[in-house]
Amino acid sequence: MAAGKSIRKHRLATVAAWAVAASVVLGTAVAGGTASASASAAGGAKPTIVLEHGAFADASSWAGVIKRLQAKGYPVVAPADPLRGPAADAAVLSSVIKHIPGPKILVGHSYGGSVISAAGANDPQVKALVYVAAFLPAPGETALELTGKFPGSTLGAALDPVTYALPGGAATTDLYIRADAFAHQFAADVPAGQAALMAATQRPITQSALQEPATVAAWQTTPSWDVVTTQDLNIPEAAQLFMARRAHAHVTEVAASHSVAVSRPGIVAQVIEEAARATR
Question: Where is the signal peptide (predicted)?
Fold first, then answer.
C-alpha cells in the first residue's frame, strides 16, 4: 500500500426530491450523476461508490477521492448530508441509494458513518461499508457518547453554537467549529489556505443529531473497512479502533487529522477500491 511509514494495515424524511436536487457529484446533481453511474453499475462493471460527508464539511471534501476513483472507472455519487439527525439523514441517503440500480459501496466520513450505518441496513445491493475517521454506532449508542468513551477529543471547546427558533416556538441549536480553531481542530495536516476555505464553507450539524441513538447497524451484517486516523482531535483514535474492532472491520491506520479524505485522498481511495474488489 502506497501509504509510507505512517500506515499500518490490520484486519480489523426530509423529502426525497430535496435529496435529488441537493445531491452533488462535484457540482453535478444526482439526477444527472446517477444516470451515468447507473449505466455503469447496471452493465456489471464496477459498483457505484456513494460518499457521505459528515459534520463541519460538505461534499467537496471528497474531491480528491472522487478524482482518483473516477480515474479508475468507478461511478461515484456524493450527496449532500442535511446533518439533521441519523434517522432523517439516512432516509435522505436511502432515497439516493434506491435511485441507483446495481451494487453500491457506501462510504461515510465522521458523522456520515452513523448515516451509512442506518441507510445501508437490510439493503442487499449495499455490498460493503467504508468508514473514514467515522462513527460506527451500535443500536442505542449516540455519536456524543462514542466521542467521550475515550479521552482525546477537543471538539467541545472548539464549537460555536447558534440557536434559532423553529416554526411553532421550539428552538434548535446548530454547531459550527470556530473559524480560529478550525484548522487545528479539524484539518491540521491540510494546507492553511485550503483549511481556511473549509472553515468558511463548513456546514453545521444540529446538536440533537449527536444525541440521537442509532436504531440499526448495517456493519453487523455487511463487510466493512475502516480508515482510522491516529492524529484525530474530533474522534479519538482509541474510540475509532474500539468501533472498528467491534465491527470486525478491515482497518488501515493513518497518521492524519480528521480531514484525512482531504489531506490523504489517495489512501482513502485505495481502501475504497479494496472494499469494492473484495465484494465483486
Answer: 1-31
